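Appendix B. One record, verbatim.
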Amino acid sequence: MSLDNELQAALRRKEPPEGFTARVLAAVECAGHAGALTAAARPPHSTSRWRYAAAAAVLVAILGGGEAVRIVRAKQQMLTALHITSAKLRGARNHVHEISTR
């Protein structure tokens, strides 16, 4: 079975279990109270971004079809590529700076 087929099978629309909506709303309400945490207790910004991206992927999988899953996957791949590019450019900049200060 190909990766696309496995992903489509895993993300096929399913009815949520009984009480799912109430549990989600309760979790959202608790998260609203968690906003009062100090900055030191909050996760780093980049971690939050990945969590939001994962949550968006789950929602798309629950609510939508295969094309939306491909869009989310492409977005995640683009963000990863941008992260890698940024790290490579930062390394090149540091290298040029080291050479120029010799």
